[in-house]
Write a structure and sequence with these properties.
The protein is mainly α. Among the domains are: 104 residues, Tetratricopeptide repeat domain (Serine Threonine Protein Phosphatase 5, Tetratricopeptide repeat, Alpha Horseshoe), CATH 1.25.40; 69 residues, Tetratricopeptide repeat domain (Serine Threonine Protein Phosphatase 5, Tetratricopeptide repeat, Alpha Horseshoe). Helix 8 runs antiparallel to helix 9 and helix 11 runs antiparallel to helix 12.
């Protein structure tokens, strides 16, 4: 996913003048306080929309001082606090709002997002479900609950929630992309392709969906088509290293080793700690019969991530070609310990 987890900014709403009309002449001071509170509240929204969270926070604070029962201001202050990564304080605001407004679906949803940020997955699931119980048309609650199910590898539930979001908002590109990934991990390749295609149809700048299409084509052995999708992803996001790594693998499969090296060298330049890239470059060098260079790159991958099994597997293969059978066996044994079953085939040779 990848993306799976793009942040969605909560909507804010502006109070109407009808609130003022409810104040009688016998509480003139109260009316003035309400009018000032509403003015401060609306200024807070304007600052929020400009990305000025500090001033937005101050305006909501001032609005609450003028009107302590101004629960929409508490809610929006919670949203601002969440945007500023102060989720504990945001929770306090959302809890206060929900105590007084137990049917306010957006407050459940906002609290759920803060739970996600704090790593409280079960609490987040509960809040998204509560939001939906108050407003069954809240497609973002379905979407974010689907993401949590996806992360828990509950793919059928994730698919159901992404589908519910799409049924409410038919052009929801993120939901198509993420449902595609859930289908893919469930083994339904054709459904995954269809969803990724829908994602880029509704948002042709969604570079990670093009990358997903490319990686599926590569899995199907359609490497030339894969290259085209990866190239589109890179054209949209020029430093998107995942697509560069994948295109390097596809180029290598097509025998275009120089193009593959150009891509993977660029990845390492951008991300010197990208251990996957070192292993991919090692495999490219192996294809060029540069066994020493391949072993060196796999060693670099291991230096960055000593728990990366594929690097041990591939370094063992390179060591075998370098007439180091003992070193190869040691690497394959380590790869097997790290959960790479293919290593057993080499140990049995």
């Amino acid at each position: 996913m990848n993306k799976l987890l793009q942040s969605i900014v909560l909507g804010l709403f502006v109070l109407t003048a009808s609130l003022q009309a409810q104040v009688t002449d016998t509480v003139r001071v109260g009316e003035q306080n309400r009018m000032l509170a509403e003015k401060l509240y609306n200024e807070g929204i304007e600052f929020y929309e400009k990305g000025n969270y500090v001033d937005a926070m101050q305006r909501f604070n001032d609005a609450i001082k003028e009107r302590p029962d101004f629960f929409q201001a508490y809610y929006n202050r919670g949203v601002v606090r969440a945007q500023m990564n102060n989720h504990n304080a945001a929770m306090e605001d959302f809890n206060l709002v929900l105590k007084e407004m137990p049917d306010f679906a957006m407050a459940f949803f906002a609290r759920g997002l803060s739970h996600v940020a704090m790593g409280n997955e079960q609490e987040a699931l509960t809040d998204f479900s509560l939001a939906l119980s108050k407003n069954s048309r809240m497609y973002l609650a379905y979407y974010h609950r689907g993401i949590l199910y996806f992360q828990q590898e509950l793919y059928p539930k994730a698919i159901d929630d992404f589908s519910a979001a799409i049924n409410i908002r038919a052009d929801f590109a993120y939901a198509y992309n993420d449902r595609g990934s859930a289908h893919r991990l469930s083994g339904n390749t054709q459904a995954a392709i269809a969803d990724y295609q829908q994602a880029v149809f509704f948002d042709n700048t969604m570079y990670f969906a093009f990358n997903n299409l490319g990686s599926l084509r590569m899995e199907l052995g359609q490497n030339q088509e894969a290259v085209e999708f990866f190239t589109t992803a890179i054209r949209i996001s020029k430093d998107y290293t995942k697509a560069m790594v994948n295109r390097a693998i596809a180029y290598n499969s097509l025998g275009r080793t120089e193009d593959a090296l150009t891509d993977i060298n660029r990845v390492i330049e951008l991300e010197p700690q990208n251990y996957v890239a070192y292993t991919v470059r090692g495999n490219i060098k192996y294809a060029q019969n540069d066994f020493e260079g391949a072993a060196t790159d796999h060693t670099q991958a291991i230096a960055v991530n000593p728990q990366y099994g594929p690097a041990y597997l591939n370094r063992g293969i390179a060591k075998e070609m370098l007439r180091d059978p003992q070193g190869a066996a040691e690497d394959w044994t380590k790869a097997l310990e790290l959960g790479i079953p293919r290593a057993a085939d080499y140990l049995e040779q």
